[in-house]
Design goal:
The chain is mainly alpha-helical and 442 residues long. The protein folds into 3 domains: 106 residues, no CATH class; 149 residues, no CATH class; 156 residues, Up-down Bundle (Butyryl-CoA Dehydrogenase, subunit A, domain 3), CATH 1.20.140. It is built from 14 helices and 12 strands. The strands form 5 sheets. Strands 6-5-7 form a 3-stranded antiparallel β-sheet. A hairpin with a 6-residue loop joins strand 8 and strand 9. The protein is globular. The two termini are 23 Å apart.
Length: 442
Protein backbone atom coordinates (compact mmCIF):
# COMPACT_ATOMS: atom_id res chain seq x y z
CA UNK A 1 0.00 0.00 0.00
CA UNK A 2 1.05 3.59 -0.53
CA UNK A 3 1.73 5.25 2.80
CA UNK A 4 1.48 8.89 3.90
CA UNK A 5 5.00 9.80 2.86
CA UNK A 6 4.71 8.08 -0.51
CA UNK A 7 1.36 9.73 -1.09
CA UNK A 8 2.92 13.18 -1.27
CA UNK A 9 5.28 12.08 -4.06
CA UNK A 10 2.69 10.34 -6.23
CA UNK A 11 0.57 13.30 -7.34
CA UNK A 12 1.61 12.85 -10.96
CA UNK A 13 -0.63 9.81 -11.06
CA UNK A 14 -3.73 11.96 -10.52
CA UNK A 15 -5.13 14.56 -12.85
CA UNK A 16 -7.29 16.22 -10.18
CA UNK A 17 -10.21 16.45 -12.63
CA UNK A 18 -13.86 16.03 -11.74
CA UNK A 19 -15.45 12.60 -11.62
CA UNK A 20 -16.75 11.26 -14.89
CA UNK A 21 -19.80 8.97 -15.21
CA UNK A 22 -17.59 6.01 -16.08
CA UNK A 23 -16.20 6.06 -12.55
CA UNK A 24 -19.58 5.03 -11.16
CA UNK A 25 -19.78 1.74 -13.05
CA UNK A 26 -18.79 -1.72 -11.89
CA UNK A 27 -15.57 -1.95 -13.91
CA UNK A 28 -12.61 -0.09 -12.38
CA UNK A 29 -10.40 2.02 -14.62
CA UNK A 30 -6.94 0.50 -14.43
CA UNK A 31 -3.73 2.43 -14.97
CA UNK A 32 -1.53 -0.40 -16.23
CA UNK A 33 1.58 1.74 -16.44
CA UNK A 34 1.48 2.56 -12.73
CA UNK A 35 0.25 -0.81 -11.51
CA UNK A 36 -2.57 0.88 -9.59
CA UNK A 37 -6.21 -0.09 -9.84
CA UNK A 38 -8.13 2.76 -8.26
CA UNK A 39 -8.00 4.73 -5.05
CA UNK A 40 -9.83 4.38 -1.76
CA UNK A 41 -9.89 6.21 1.56
CA UNK A 42 -9.38 4.56 4.95
CA UNK A 43 -12.69 4.60 6.84
CA UNK A 44 -10.88 5.15 10.17
CA UNK A 45 -8.33 7.88 9.37
CA UNK A 46 -9.37 9.12 5.88
CA UNK A 47 -5.93 8.52 4.31
CA UNK A 48 -5.98 7.92 0.55
CA UNK A 49 -4.45 4.68 -0.73
CA UNK A 50 -3.76 3.29 -4.17
CA UNK A 51 -5.33 -0.14 -4.66
CA UNK A 52 -2.73 -2.75 -5.56
CA UNK A 53 -2.89 -6.49 -6.01
CA UNK A 54 -2.30 -8.53 -2.87
CA UNK A 55 -1.51 -12.26 -2.72
CA UNK A 56 -4.38 -14.74 -2.68
CA UNK A 57 -5.79 -14.92 0.83
CA UNK A 58 -4.00 -11.70 1.77
CA UNK A 59 -5.31 -8.34 2.92
CA UNK A 60 -4.29 -4.71 2.68
CA UNK A 61 -4.06 -2.55 5.79
CA UNK A 62 -3.96 1.21 6.15
CA UNK A 63 -0.32 2.32 6.37
CA UNK A 64 -1.21 4.97 8.95
CA UNK A 65 -3.76 3.48 11.37
CA UNK A 66 -3.68 -0.22 10.50
CA UNK A 67 -7.37 -0.52 9.56
CA UNK A 68 -8.41 -3.22 7.11
CA UNK A 69 -8.87 -1.78 3.61
CA UNK A 70 -9.65 -4.82 1.48
CA UNK A 71 -9.03 -8.55 1.11
CA UNK A 72 -8.19 -10.85 -1.78
CA UNK A 73 -10.05 -14.15 -1.56
CA UNK A 74 -9.76 -16.38 -4.64
CA UNK A 75 -13.19 -16.95 -6.14
CA UNK A 76 -14.54 -14.60 -3.48
CA UNK A 77 -18.07 -14.29 -4.83
CA UNK A 78 -18.72 -18.03 -4.90
CA UNK A 79 -17.07 -18.41 -1.51
CA UNK A 80 -19.29 -15.81 0.18
CA UNK A 81 -22.43 -17.17 -1.50
CA UNK A 82 -21.65 -20.74 -0.42
CA UNK A 83 -21.02 -19.71 3.17
CA UNK A 84 -24.23 -17.68 3.38
CA UNK A 85 -26.31 -20.47 1.82
CA UNK A 86 -24.86 -22.96 4.31
CA UNK A 87 -25.54 -20.49 7.15
CA UNK A 88 -29.16 -20.17 6.02
CA UNK A 89 -29.59 -23.96 6.11
CA UNK A 90 -28.12 -24.06 9.62
CA UNK A 91 -30.41 -21.20 10.68
CA UNK A 92 -33.42 -23.28 9.61
CA UNK A 93 -32.15 -26.33 11.51
CA UNK A 94 -31.54 -24.23 14.62
CA UNK A 95 -35.17 -23.14 14.70
CA UNK A 96 -36.74 -26.52 13.84
CA UNK A 97 -35.06 -29.02 16.16
CA UNK A 98 -34.71 -29.07 19.99
CA UNK A 99 -31.95 -26.81 21.29
CA UNK A 100 -31.26 -27.89 24.88
CA UNK A 101 -32.85 -30.32 27.32
CA UNK A 102 -32.52 -30.52 31.09
CA UNK A 103 -33.05 -33.74 33.06
CA UNK A 104 -33.69 -33.66 36.82
CA UNK A 105 -35.39 -36.21 39.08
CA UNK A 106 -36.78 -38.09 36.09
CA UNK A 107 -38.30 -34.95 34.60
CA UNK A 108 -37.17 -33.56 31.24
CA UNK A 109 -37.52 -29.89 30.24
CA UNK A 110 -36.91 -29.43 26.50
CA UNK A 111 -36.42 -26.07 24.80
CA UNK A 112 -36.24 -24.71 21.29
CA UNK A 113 -34.11 -21.78 20.16
CA UNK A 114 -36.65 -19.06 21.00
CA UNK A 115 -37.87 -20.59 24.28
CA UNK A 116 -36.02 -17.94 26.27
CA UNK A 117 -37.66 -15.15 24.26
CA UNK A 118 -41.13 -16.61 24.83
CA UNK A 119 -40.47 -17.05 28.56
CA UNK A 120 -39.31 -13.45 28.92
CA UNK A 121 -42.48 -12.25 27.20
CA UNK A 122 -44.70 -14.42 29.41
CA UNK A 123 -42.98 -13.06 32.54
CA UNK A 124 -43.64 -9.43 31.55
CA UNK A 125 -40.16 -8.78 30.16
CA UNK A 126 -41.23 -8.30 26.56
CA UNK A 127 -38.69 -5.52 25.94
CA UNK A 128 -35.85 -7.78 27.02
CA UNK A 129 -37.26 -10.63 24.96
CA UNK A 130 -37.44 -8.38 21.89
CA UNK A 131 -33.78 -7.41 22.27
CA UNK A 132 -32.76 -11.08 22.54
CA UNK A 133 -34.93 -11.99 19.54
CA UNK A 134 -33.44 -9.21 17.38
CA UNK A 135 -29.79 -9.87 18.22
CA UNK A 136 -29.92 -13.67 18.17
CA UNK A 137 -32.35 -14.41 15.34
CA UNK A 138 -33.91 -11.61 13.29
CA UNK A 139 -30.80 -9.48 12.63
CA UNK A 140 -28.55 -12.46 11.78
CA UNK A 141 -31.29 -13.81 9.49
CA UNK A 142 -31.66 -10.40 7.82
CA UNK A 143 -27.89 -10.29 7.31
CA UNK A 144 -27.80 -13.71 5.64
CA UNK A 145 -30.85 -13.12 3.44
CA UNK A 146 -29.64 -9.62 2.56
CA UNK A 147 -26.26 -10.85 1.38
CA UNK A 148 -27.91 -13.57 -0.70
CA UNK A 149 -30.29 -11.01 -2.24
CA UNK A 150 -27.37 -8.77 -3.13
CA UNK A 151 -24.79 -11.30 -4.30
CA UNK A 152 -26.76 -14.14 -5.88
CA UNK A 153 -28.01 -12.05 -8.84
CA UNK A 154 -24.51 -10.60 -9.31
CA UNK A 155 -23.24 -14.17 -9.61
CA UNK A 156 -25.47 -14.55 -12.69
CA UNK A 157 -24.68 -11.15 -14.15
CA UNK A 158 -27.59 -8.93 -13.10
CA UNK A 159 -28.85 -6.94 -10.13
CA UNK A 160 -32.23 -6.91 -8.43
CA UNK A 161 -33.97 -3.63 -7.56
CA UNK A 162 -33.24 -2.29 -4.10
CA UNK A 163 -29.69 -3.62 -3.97
CA UNK A 164 -28.32 -0.52 -2.24
CA UNK A 165 -31.01 -0.26 0.49
CA UNK A 166 -30.67 -3.97 1.21
CA UNK A 167 -26.87 -3.73 1.42
CA UNK A 168 -27.12 -0.69 3.69
CA UNK A 169 -29.53 -2.62 5.93
CA UNK A 170 -27.03 -5.48 6.15
CA UNK A 171 -24.32 -3.02 7.22
CA UNK A 172 -26.61 -1.45 9.83
CA UNK A 173 -27.60 -4.74 11.49
CA UNK A 174 -24.08 -6.24 11.38
CA UNK A 175 -22.96 -4.82 14.78
CA UNK A 176 -26.14 -6.21 16.33
CA UNK A 177 -25.64 -9.82 15.17
CA UNK A 178 -24.40 -11.50 18.35
CA UNK A 179 -24.41 -15.21 17.62
CA UNK A 180 -20.86 -15.63 18.96
CA UNK A 181 -21.85 -13.96 22.23
CA UNK A 182 -24.91 -16.20 22.46
CA UNK A 183 -22.73 -19.28 21.98
CA UNK A 184 -20.60 -18.27 24.96
CA UNK A 185 -23.79 -17.74 26.97
CA UNK A 186 -24.96 -21.26 26.08
CA UNK A 187 -21.68 -22.71 27.37
CA UNK A 188 -21.94 -20.64 30.55
CA UNK A 189 -25.54 -21.72 31.10
CA UNK A 190 -24.61 -25.39 30.70
CA UNK A 191 -21.80 -25.04 33.25
CA UNK A 192 -24.03 -23.12 35.67
CA UNK A 193 -26.72 -25.81 35.54
CA UNK A 194 -24.38 -28.75 36.18
CA UNK A 195 -25.09 -28.60 39.93
CA UNK A 196 -28.85 -28.64 39.28
CA UNK A 197 -29.43 -31.15 36.51
CA UNK A 198 -28.05 -32.96 33.49
CA UNK A 199 -27.97 -30.75 30.40
CA UNK A 200 -28.39 -32.54 27.06
CA UNK A 201 -27.54 -30.72 23.80
CA UNK A 202 -30.02 -31.05 20.95
CA UNK A 203 -29.55 -31.17 17.19
CA UNK A 204 -30.22 -27.44 17.00
CA UNK A 205 -27.27 -26.69 19.27
CA UNK A 206 -24.84 -28.47 16.95
CA UNK A 207 -26.37 -26.61 14.00
CA UNK A 208 -25.98 -23.37 15.95
CA UNK A 209 -22.25 -23.97 16.47
CA UNK A 210 -21.89 -24.50 12.72
CA UNK A 211 -23.95 -21.35 12.11
CA UNK A 212 -21.59 -19.24 14.24
CA UNK A 213 -18.55 -20.53 12.34
CA UNK A 214 -20.17 -20.05 8.94
CA UNK A 215 -21.38 -16.53 9.70
CA UNK A 216 -17.92 -15.50 10.89
CA UNK A 217 -16.30 -17.02 7.79
CA UNK A 218 -18.81 -15.30 5.47
CA UNK A 219 -18.17 -11.94 7.11
CA UNK A 220 -14.39 -12.38 6.85
CA UNK A 221 -14.63 -13.45 3.19
CA UNK A 222 -16.77 -10.57 1.94
CA UNK A 223 -15.12 -7.59 0.27
CA UNK A 224 -17.00 -4.53 -0.94
CA UNK A 225 -15.14 -4.71 -4.26
CA UNK A 226 -17.39 -7.65 -5.15
CA UNK A 227 -20.09 -5.03 -5.68
CA UNK A 228 -18.24 -1.79 -6.30
CA UNK A 229 -14.68 -1.10 -7.47
CA UNK A 230 -12.39 1.53 -6.01
CA UNK A 231 -12.57 5.04 -7.45
CA UNK A 232 -10.59 5.60 -10.63
CA UNK A 233 -7.06 6.95 -10.09
CA UNK A 234 -7.76 10.30 -11.71
CA UNK A 235 -10.18 11.15 -8.89
CA UNK A 236 -7.59 11.13 -6.16
CA UNK A 237 -7.05 14.87 -5.85
CA UNK A 238 -4.23 16.79 -4.31
CA UNK A 239 -3.69 15.70 -0.74
CA UNK A 240 -2.80 12.82 1.54
CA UNK A 241 -6.35 12.41 2.87
CA UNK A 242 -9.74 12.56 1.26
CA UNK A 243 -10.50 15.73 3.21
CA UNK A 244 -7.24 17.36 2.02
CA UNK A 245 -8.16 16.45 -1.55
CA UNK A 246 -11.68 17.87 -1.06
CA UNK A 247 -13.24 14.45 -1.51
CA UNK A 248 -15.93 12.71 0.50
CA UNK A 249 -15.80 8.97 1.10
CA UNK A 250 -19.15 7.21 0.62
CA UNK A 251 -19.53 4.79 3.52
CA UNK A 252 -21.71 2.44 1.48
CA UNK A 253 -19.81 1.91 -1.78
CA UNK A 254 -16.47 3.65 -0.94
CA UNK A 255 -16.70 6.01 -3.93
CA UNK A 256 -14.69 9.22 -3.53
CA UNK A 257 -16.98 12.10 -4.43
CA UNK A 258 -15.89 15.75 -4.88
CA UNK A 259 -17.05 17.91 -2.00
CA UNK A 260 -18.36 20.39 -4.56
CA UNK A 261 -21.25 18.00 -5.20
CA UNK A 262 -22.70 18.80 -1.77
CA UNK A 263 -25.31 21.52 -1.41
CA UNK A 264 -24.70 24.72 0.56
CA UNK A 265 -26.31 22.96 3.54
CA UNK A 266 -23.65 20.24 3.30
CA UNK A 267 -26.08 17.58 2.09
CA UNK A 268 -25.88 15.34 -0.94
CA UNK A 269 -26.12 11.80 -2.22
CA UNK A 270 -23.58 9.45 -3.72
CA UNK A 271 -23.94 9.40 -7.53
CA UNK A 272 -23.23 5.67 -7.63
CA UNK A 273 -25.38 4.24 -4.81
CA UNK A 274 -27.53 7.26 -3.78
CA UNK A 275 -26.51 6.95 -0.13
CA UNK A 276 -26.39 10.19 1.92
CA UNK A 277 -22.93 11.77 1.97
CA UNK A 278 -21.28 13.48 4.92
CA UNK A 279 -17.78 14.82 5.52
CA UNK A 280 -17.98 13.56 9.09
CA UNK A 281 -20.77 11.95 11.08
CA UNK A 282 -23.29 14.65 11.93
CA UNK A 283 -23.05 15.96 15.52
CA UNK A 284 -20.78 13.05 16.38
CA UNK A 285 -19.31 14.61 19.53
CA UNK A 286 -22.65 15.77 20.99
CA UNK A 287 -24.48 12.54 20.26
CA UNK A 288 -21.67 10.40 21.68
CA UNK A 289 -21.53 12.45 24.89
CA UNK A 290 -25.31 12.17 25.29
CA UNK A 291 -25.14 8.39 24.91
CA UNK A 292 -22.16 8.07 27.28
CA UNK A 293 -23.98 10.02 29.99
CA UNK A 294 -27.15 7.97 29.44
CA UNK A 295 -25.20 4.72 29.80
CA UNK A 296 -23.55 5.96 33.01
CA UNK A 297 -26.94 6.80 34.50
CA UNK A 298 -28.32 3.39 33.51
CA UNK A 299 -25.35 1.64 35.12
CA UNK A 300 -26.49 2.75 38.58
CA UNK A 301 -29.83 0.90 38.69
CA UNK A 302 -28.33 -1.93 36.63
CA UNK A 303 -25.92 -2.69 39.48
CA UNK A 304 -28.28 -1.84 42.37
CA UNK A 305 -31.41 -3.72 41.35
CA UNK A 306 -31.52 -7.53 41.05
CA UNK A 307 -31.17 -9.03 37.59
CA UNK A 308 -32.38 -12.55 38.35
CA UNK A 309 -34.12 -14.64 41.01
CA UNK A 310 -33.27 -18.32 41.50
CA UNK A 311 -35.70 -20.35 43.61
CA UNK A 312 -34.73 -23.90 44.57
CA UNK A 313 -37.11 -26.06 46.58
CA UNK A 314 -39.08 -23.00 47.62
CA UNK A 315 -36.08 -20.99 48.79
CA UNK A 316 -34.25 -18.19 47.04
CA UNK A 317 -33.87 -14.46 46.75
CA UNK A 318 -33.24 -11.84 44.05
CA UNK A 319 -29.62 -11.54 42.94
CA UNK A 320 -27.71 -8.54 41.62
CA UNK A 321 -24.87 -8.82 39.11
CA UNK A 322 -22.25 -8.59 41.88
CA UNK A 323 -24.09 -11.14 44.06
CA UNK A 324 -24.33 -13.54 41.15
CA UNK A 325 -20.59 -13.30 40.51
CA UNK A 326 -19.88 -13.83 44.22
CA UNK A 327 -22.14 -16.90 44.27
CA UNK A 328 -20.33 -18.43 41.30
CA UNK A 329 -16.93 -17.92 42.94
CA UNK A 330 -18.13 -19.34 46.27
CA UNK A 331 -19.49 -22.39 44.43
CA UNK A 332 -16.04 -23.05 43.02
CA UNK A 333 -16.93 -21.91 39.49
CA UNK A 334 -14.45 -19.04 39.57
CA UNK A 335 -13.60 -19.20 35.82
CA UNK A 336 -17.29 -18.70 35.05
CA UNK A 337 -17.47 -15.97 37.68
CA UNK A 338 -14.51 -14.14 36.15
CA UNK A 339 -16.04 -14.30 32.66
CA UNK A 340 -19.28 -12.78 33.96
CA UNK A 341 -17.29 -10.20 35.95
CA UNK A 342 -15.33 -9.09 32.89
CA UNK A 343 -18.35 -9.05 30.55
CA UNK A 344 -20.79 -7.41 32.98
CA UNK A 345 -18.59 -5.10 35.07
CA UNK A 346 -15.23 -4.46 33.41
CA UNK A 347 -16.34 -4.16 29.76
CA UNK A 348 -19.12 -1.55 30.25
CA UNK A 349 -16.99 0.69 32.47
CA UNK A 350 -13.87 0.36 30.30
CA UNK A 351 -15.89 1.04 27.15
CA UNK A 352 -17.36 4.23 28.62
CA UNK A 353 -13.94 5.29 29.91
CA UNK A 354 -12.34 4.69 26.50
CA UNK A 355 -15.04 6.60 24.65
CA UNK A 356 -14.75 9.48 27.13
CA UNK A 357 -10.98 9.60 26.61
CA UNK A 358 -11.44 9.67 22.84
CA UNK A 359 -14.06 12.39 23.10
CA UNK A 360 -11.92 14.62 25.31
CA UNK A 361 -8.80 14.13 23.16
CA UNK A 362 -10.73 15.08 20.01
CA UNK A 363 -12.22 18.17 21.63
CA UNK A 364 -8.78 19.25 22.82
CA UNK A 365 -7.44 18.72 19.26
CA UNK A 366 -4.78 16.43 20.70
CA UNK A 367 -2.09 14.95 18.48
CA UNK A 368 -1.13 12.41 21.14
CA UNK A 369 -0.71 8.76 20.02
CA UNK A 370 -3.10 8.99 17.08
CA UNK A 371 -2.72 5.39 15.93
CA UNK A 372 -3.05 4.02 19.47
CA UNK A 373 -6.26 5.97 20.00
CA UNK A 374 -7.65 4.61 16.73
CA UNK A 375 -6.81 1.07 17.81
CA UNK A 376 -8.47 1.79 21.16
CA UNK A 377 -11.63 2.80 19.32
CA UNK A 378 -11.62 -0.41 17.26
CA UNK A 379 -11.21 -2.48 20.43
CA UNK A 380 -14.10 -0.56 22.01
CA UNK A 381 -16.29 -1.43 19.03
CA UNK A 382 -15.17 -5.06 19.14
CA UNK A 383 -15.82 -5.84 22.82
CA UNK A 384 -18.99 -3.80 23.27
CA UNK A 385 -21.42 -6.55 22.32
CA UNK A 386 -19.87 -9.07 24.74
CA UNK A 387 -21.71 -7.44 27.63
CA UNK A 388 -24.80 -9.14 26.20
CA UNK A 389 -23.51 -12.38 27.72
CA UNK A 390 -25.46 -11.70 30.91
CA UNK A 391 -28.69 -10.90 29.04
CA UNK A 392 -28.47 -14.04 26.90
CA UNK A 393 -27.63 -16.08 30.00
CA UNK A 394 -30.75 -14.82 31.76
CA UNK A 395 -32.90 -15.61 28.70
CA UNK A 396 -31.48 -19.14 28.41
CA UNK A 397 -31.90 -19.94 32.10
CA UNK A 398 -35.41 -18.48 32.16
CA UNK A 399 -36.48 -20.61 29.21
CA UNK A 400 -34.76 -23.78 30.39
CA UNK A 401 -35.28 -23.85 34.16
CA UNK A 402 -39.04 -24.08 34.72
CA UNK A 403 -39.42 -26.97 37.14
CA UNK A 404 -42.18 -25.53 39.33
CA UNK A 405 -41.50 -26.51 42.96
CA UNK A 406 -38.05 -27.90 42.19
CA UNK A 407 -36.26 -24.95 40.59
CA UNK A 408 -37.31 -21.83 38.72
CA UNK A 409 -35.33 -18.86 37.43
CA UNK A 410 -36.98 -15.52 36.64
CA UNK A 411 -35.55 -12.20 35.39
CA UNK A 412 -35.76 -8.99 37.42
CA UNK A 413 -35.85 -5.27 36.68
CA UNK A 414 -32.07 -4.87 36.86
CA UNK A 415 -31.74 -6.91 33.66
CA UNK A 416 -33.72 -4.27 31.77
CA UNK A 417 -31.42 -1.49 32.97
CA UNK A 418 -28.33 -3.53 32.11
CA UNK A 419 -29.71 -4.24 28.63
CA UNK A 420 -30.16 -0.48 28.30
CA UNK A 421 -26.48 -0.01 29.15
CA UNK A 422 -25.40 -2.51 26.48
CA UNK A 423 -27.60 -0.97 23.77
CA UNK A 424 -26.61 2.60 24.65
CA UNK A 425 -22.87 1.89 24.64
CA UNK A 426 -23.12 0.20 21.24
CA UNK A 427 -24.94 3.25 19.88
CA UNK A 428 -22.29 5.48 21.46
CA UNK A 429 -19.44 3.61 19.76
CA UNK A 430 -21.26 3.73 16.41
CA UNK A 431 -21.91 7.48 16.70
CA UNK A 432 -18.24 8.33 17.28
CA UNK A 433 -16.30 9.21 14.12
CA UNK A 434 -12.67 7.94 14.37
CA UNK A 435 -11.59 10.26 11.55
CA UNK A 436 -11.94 13.14 14.02
CA UNK A 437 -8.89 11.75 15.81
CA UNK A 438 -6.74 12.48 12.75
CA UNK A 439 -8.30 15.79 11.70
CA UNK A 440 -6.06 17.75 14.05
CA UNK A 441 -2.83 15.83 13.50
CA UNK A 442 0.34 17.88 13.87
Amino acid sequence: MVGPNEQRTQHSLFSGTALSPSMYGRIPMTNSSSGFDGVLACHDCDLLHHVRDVPAGGKALCSRCGALLYRNHPDGLNRVLSLNLAALICMILVNVFPFLSMEIAGRVEETVFISGVLSLYQLGMGELGLLVLLTSLLFPLLGILGMLYVLLPVRFGFRLPGLVPVYRLVRIVAPWCMLDVLLLSVLLAAVKLLDIANVVPGIALYAFVALVVLEAAAYASFDRALLWPATSTDAAGRGGTAADAELINCHTCALLVPASMLSHAGKGNCPRCSSPLHRRKANSIKRTWALIISALLLLIPANIYPVMTVIRFGHGEPSTIAAGIEHLIEAGMWPLGMIVFVASIIVPFMKLAALSLLQVSVQKRSGWRLRDRTVLYRLTELVGSWSMVDIFLIALLTGLVKLDALTTITPDIGALFFAGVVVTTIFAANSFDPRLIWDHRK
